[in-house]
Design brief:
heterotetramer; A alpha+beta (776); B alpha+beta (82); C alpha/beta (250); B: 82 residues; alpha+beta; C: alpha/beta; Rossmann fold; nine-stranded mixed beta sheet; binds adenosine-5'-diphosphate; binds magnesium ion
């Protein structure tokens, strides 16, 4: 290809190659399996599987594929609960589920949607910009590999304290990395999270999500079937970047020194960092969609963590035979790469396709059009084995399933720590509460300016939300919504949420609270929740207390999904998120996908659309402050019970909001979550640039009314003309409802009767000033 | 006042997407005589005469380059260079 | 405001793909890495013309009546934004045709391509605050006599999305003076004092034109403001309607 | 194969916000000995031995730099530099 660097011929440099016959001849050679993250018994098992010692290339493959990150060895036994709790009815719209690159659901009209969240936590701490950028790149390729056009991205970010020096180092880099990659790729960013908590200092979380759409008949999966079919590697060249990335950065051997190589070729000090090339990925996407459209591929797989090791073994084991790969055909960017290095490289922006022989030329032609380098590197066989040769010498000869799917499975010790009782007993009840109007006014301003509640605009303004022209809702909406195509009014919606403070107090219900909030955010925009994904960020699985949090969270999420009737279609687990031995708050990020039949009916957050609007609070407010943002901001307190979850109530609330938007009964809505009613009302006024007068319910303490974080609540703005119809609908469903005020277009103030009158300017200054002051 | 130039380049084993794209463009424009391009950063500093080499090294490492992915060279430029 | 607001697009209907009401054919160029070509083509169709896809490697403009060079990150914005695209085959053809009076609009990355290819003076550099910025931006239409702006009232203020990392317009003082004197500053950033200029552009310049007003480049994105469902307003449609008007007059 | 380095810098009369930001950061970190920073680009090319100086100048002027805003220098690097 004209725009590539000259081929670095492997013959130029002397490459030490460990072959299968050498392995047979030297069974007792000591191998550095421990440095590669393998335990003694795991290494013994590899020897049993092969009946000999592994070659260096095989060792590199097994070690990376058997890492926690790729094999889910500590989580598998728990994740199986998702399968057990998914009924046939829940599965009815699922075209692909757990186990595929990403879940796929049918959304009607012949359209399907695929979506997934993935973590890139450790790489982003080491190199914030590139770590975050390649996190976005990786999840987008996952979605592409399902045969879908990626149409939107989201990012879930968690940092140490907002004013910590290290946060100032990592946050701007991570945000510009997410933006730099996503913007250049042409994918609108339609939502996400930014959360600050002490526990993430030294271990920020960078999760990235992508949504793709496809015609349901066009779904692809990663499988290599049909002996004689060709395996084509296309995209960027394979280089030395990111070697050891998975085993060093994303698994239990994380050391941050970037010194690990692969096999006995750890001779070079290789950086474990990958540099993203979003331009190459954009071209790769268009090229891939063109080969899909021309029906040129049988199966496809993205190259992510574990590079070719993962792609070849997964393709081969999902197919019906075996595979032969000629590793010397892989286009390289560096000289003298060993087979182990080529297999382990995590060079970005690469894909692997299985193509019937008669279509190879047409496939390569599309690649030439897009100036994407492509080479046939292998062939599907009927041997049942994955055989990899390097200049005619066999360097790998393994049963592919043993690499990709039959890795070790651990039932790690699980134990509820005694400290959990202490945490629960330390309730917020004795915390001093504001009571006078002055104190309440002060608290409102302090809360809306606090790092977890203030405007995210400083972050989201760095993301393109308009590109592709189909974005119907994006920040500061509760959920993002994109139209599936130009000539349709069908839309998909997505929201992701997690409150790690709630999950710390009660992992089972904390995970359900995350689910409830994401569900509520989706229905608030007017969409019907359809499916769930997750990204489970936890500490070390070797800590029984962490495993307890993990198992509880999985159970809570699965039970919650069963109760709501929406399936978990996939997810991601990230362990070892800790600084020293202190784990992060358990952070099971839950993503809910929704469908909206007519995007023109979506509900916005800002009030003031209609001449007269009544504000109605749906749901019940209790005195619930355990894990609340108020306890955090004002008292730096975490203890007690999180707010109660009631998923049946959430479901009815959802029905009301969906019907309200569909039938044009509501002109704006915003759900209540962290910061409670005060936060929601302030955001509705500021977003709509319109004032409101609020009368708090007489039977409630004003402090509780304003700041409680009781769930299943939403504020809706109802046009005067619709008020009766709307309230009758709520009454028919016996849903608690309180008229709390009106919109006052004539006056730019938020007037909370008997508490405070705040000008919108003053509120805006408080809400918008925080992040720019910290990070600009 | 002295002048210092610092060149920062991406480590050779790490992908340089910009260099790759420029090479492609040169090829299309018929400049086939160029076989490799890497793009880095070039800084020109004006510094006090008494600044030490160690100081300059520290500035390059901590402010001008990202040691995780880049290497750098520091060069004092003779006055006439101004 | 634009008098485009009563157009067929503003009723929130899903766009109708191939309504060529006017017979006008407007080319939309795609370079590798172009992103907003789909949006530009949609805007052309909303305005009632046919959008003709032009590929970077083509030297044939297929007889189009006007060309839009859309936004995005062509060639990744590597080297300098627009630099590599300006040296492609299709741009050679556009430069040639522009000499003969072909109307050309460059949006964002397209504006950068037009300055890099010498069709418009000056250059677009890294934003002063060094960040990518995406926001809804007020612009004043300073000149409604170019082929791309006749649908606007003189001095109209329009709200359209802006999104760029390298949108700071710079040129020699003499060039700026000349642009101002000749009324070739077509769009200017306006809004709250202190916050109106999103990138540090000299003279708050958001868009300029060639001396004959047939070539216009601007950083903000009128093609993202053609329907209040997916953009802040439909104020951007006037640009596409304007050029179609000028084509119909001939 | 020969090696060539090209440095491209923003003309002095044009604002260089990156240089300014670095200078600010250096000041806050106590590196008061630096009084000016300008950031430009540094290219390292591998070229055919027979490439002419005029060719190189053309590549710098037409590709690597934008003469409207930048100036450049081209420098052949002795082989030992590799
Ligand atoms: N990292 C991010 N990337 C993109 N959008 C974000 C990010 N963080 C927050 N947002 C958006 O900002 C808005 C406010 O966020 P948040 O208060 O967390 O929403 P909610 O409480 O409804 O979950 C939402 O639209 C959200 O999607
Ligand atoms: Mg919300």
């Amino acid at each position: 290809m004209p725009n590539e660097q000259s081929t670095a011929s492997p013959e130029e440099a002397v490459v030490h190659v460990d072959t299968v016959s050498a392995a047979q001849a030297s069974p007792d050679v000591a191998q550095p399996y421990r440095e590669l993250g393998l335990k003694d018994d795991e290494y013994t098992r590899i020897r049993e599987i092969l009946g000999r010692r592994p070659t260096e290339a095989e060792l590199a493959m097994y070690s990376v594929m058997w890492s926690e990150h790729c094999s889910y060895k500590s989580s598998k036994v728990h994740l199986s609960y998702f399968g057990k709790t998914t009924t046939d009815e829940m599965k009815s719209k699922m075209l692909a589920g757990i186990g595929e690159n990403a879940g796929v659901v049918d959304i009607g009209d012949g359209w399907a949607v695929t979506f997934k969240v993935e973590s890139h936590n450790h790489p982003s701490y080491v190199e914030p910009y590139q770590g975050a950028a390649t996190g976005v790149g990786g999840i987008v390729r996952d979605i592409l590999a399902m045969g879908a056009r990626p149409v939107a991205v989201m990012d879930q970010l968690r940092f140490g304290p907002a004013d910590a020096a290290d946060t100032r180092r990592v946050l701007p880099g991570i945000v510009s990395g997410v933006g730099g990659y996503g913007n250049c790729l042409g994918l609108p960013n339609i939502g996400g999270e930014v959360v600050f908590d002490e526990s993430y200092a030294g271990n920020p979380l960078v999760n990235a999500a992508c949504i793709g759409v496809l015609r349901s008949e066009d779904m692809y999966t990663a499988h290599a079937s049909g002996a004689g079919n060709k395996v084509i590697l296309y995209g960027s060249r394979t280089g030395l970047d990111g070697i050891g990335g998975v085993s060093v950065l994303a698994s239990d051997t994380f050391s941050g020194d970037g010194s690990a190589g692969a096999g006995s070729n750890a001779r070079r000090k290789l950086p474990s960092v990958q540099v993203g090339d979003p331009f190459a990925e954009k071209v790769l996407i268009e090229c891939t969609l063109e080969v899909f459209a021309a029906d040129l591929v049988v199966g496809i797989q993205d190259l992510g963590g574990a590079g070719l090791s993962c792609a070849t073994s997964e393709l081969a084991s999902a197919g019906d035979g075996g595979m032969h790969v000629w590793l010397d055909k892989v286009p390289l960017r560096a000289t003298g790469m060993s087979p182990a290095e080529i297999l382990s490289s995590e060079s970005q922006e690469r894909m692997c396709a299985v193509v019937t022989p008669d279509k190879v030329e047409a496939f390569l032609e599309v690649c030439r059009k897009w100036e994407v380098e492509a080479d046939v590197i292998g062939e599907v066989t009927d041997t049942g084995r994955l055989v990899i040769t390097f200049h005619d010498e066999v360097v790998v000869d393994v049963p592919p399933r043993t690499v990709a799917h039959e890795g070790p499975v651990y039932s790690r010790p699980v134990e509820r720590p005694a400290s959990q009782d202490v945490l629960e007993a330390n309730t917020p009840d004795s915390l001093e509460r504001p009571s006078t109007p002055e104190e309440l006014r002060e608290t409102i301003l302090r809360m809306i300016a606090s790092p977890n509640l203030c405007s995210r605009a400083w972050v989201t303004d760095q993301y393109d939300r308009y590109v592709r022209g189909n974005t119907v809702l994006a920040q500061p909406a509760d959920s993002g919504v994109v139209r599936v195509s130009d000539d349709s009014n069908l839309g998909v919606s997505m929201a992701t949420d997690c409150n790690g403070r709630y999950t710390a107090l009660d992992p089972y219900h904390g995970a359900q609270l995350a689910l409830a909030e994401a569900y509520r955010n989706v229905v608030t925009g007017g969409a019907a929740p359809t499916a769930v994904t997750n990204c489970l960020n936890f500490g070390s699985p070797e800590d029984p207390a962490v495993m307890w949090q993990f198992s509880e969270a999985v159970k809570g999420l699965a039970d919650g999904c069963a109760q709501l009737g929406i399936p978990v279609t996939g997810g991601n687990v990230s362990f070892y998120n800790q600084t020293g031995t202190t784990a992060i708050l358990p952070t099971p990020v839950v993503g809910v996908l929704g469908v909206i039949d007519d995007v023109r009916r979506r509900t916005i957050v800002g009030v003031g659309q209609e001449a007269g609007e009544t504000l109605i609070l749906l749901g019940e407010t209790l005195d619930e402050f355990g894990g609340s943002e108020w306890a955090n901001v004002v008292h730096n307190h975490l203890g007690g019970r999180p707010p109660a979850v009631n998923l049946d109530t959430e479901r009815v609330l959802g029905e009301i909001l969906i019907a309200g938007s569909r039938d044009g009964m509501i002109s704006a809505a915003h759900d209540l979550s962290e910061g409670g009613l005060a936060q929601a009302v302030v955001e509705m006024c500021l977003t709509g640039e319109t004032g409101a007068r609020i009368v708090l319910p007489a039977d409630l303490d004003p402090f509780v009314a304003l700041f409680s974080e009781s769930t299943a609540r939403v504020v809706v703005a109802v046009p005067r003309s619709e008020e009766l119809r709307f309230t009758e609908m709520c009454q028919a469903r016996q849903f608690p409802m309180t008229r709390i005020g009106v919109v006052i277009p004539e006056e730019p103030v938020l007037d909370i009767q008997d508490v405070a009158t705040l000008s919108l300017d003053e509120l805006r200054t408080a809400w918008e000033g925080t992040l720019p002051a910290l990070f600009a | 006042m002295a002048r210092v130039e610092v060149d920062v380049v991406i480590k050779t084993e790490i992908l340089d997407p910009q260099g790759k794209a420029i090479l492609g463009a040169l090829g299309r424009a018929g400049h086939s005589g160029v076989t490799e391009v890497r793009q880095g950063k070039h800084f020109e500093l004006v510094v006090d005469d008494d600044i030490s080499d160690a100081d300059l090294e520290g500035i390059a490492e901590h402010f001008l380059a990202n040691p995780v992915i880049e290497t750098w060279t520091v060069r004092r430029v003779p006055e006439s260079g101004l | 405001m634009t008098d485009a607001s009563n157009s067929q697009a503003s009723n929130g209907q899903a766009p109708n793909s191939d309504t060529n009401l006017t017979g006008a054919r407007i080319g939309v160029i795609t370079f590798p890495g172009t992103l907003d070509d789909v949006d530009a083509a949609r805007a052309v169709r909303y305005a009632g013309a046919e959008a003709v896809a032009l590929w970077h490697a083509d030297d044939d403009l297929q007889g189009v009546d006007a060309v839009v060079v859309p936004g995005g990150f062509s060639y990744g914005d590597y080297l300098r934004a627009g630099a590599i695209s300006a040296r492609t085959t299709v741009m050679g053809a556009v430069v040639e045709a522009a000499k003969g009076g072909l109307p050309v609009l460059g949006i964002c990355n397209g504006f950068q391509v037009l300055t890099e290819s010498g069709l418009l003076p000056g250059a677009l550099m890294r934003n002063e605050h060094l960040r990518f910025i995406c926001r809804d931006q007020w612009l004043r239409v300073e000149n409604n006599t170019t082929v791309w702006t006749t649908r606007y009232e003189p001095g109209a203020e329009i709200l359209v999305p802006l999104k760029n990392a390298e949108g700071r317009y710079v040129a020699d003082a003499s060039v700026i003076d000349e642009l101002e004197a000749e009324g070739r500053v077509i769009f200017r950033y306006v809004g709250a004092e202190g916050d109106h200029n999103p990138n540090g552009s000299l003279g708050d310049i958001a868009g300029i034109s060639s001396a004959d007003g047939r070539i216009v480049g601007l950083m903000p994105h009128p093609e993202h403001a053609i329907d209040a469902l997916t953009g802040p307003t439909d104020d951007g449609l006037g640009i596409f309607l304007s050029v179609i008007d000028s084509l119909l007059k001939v």
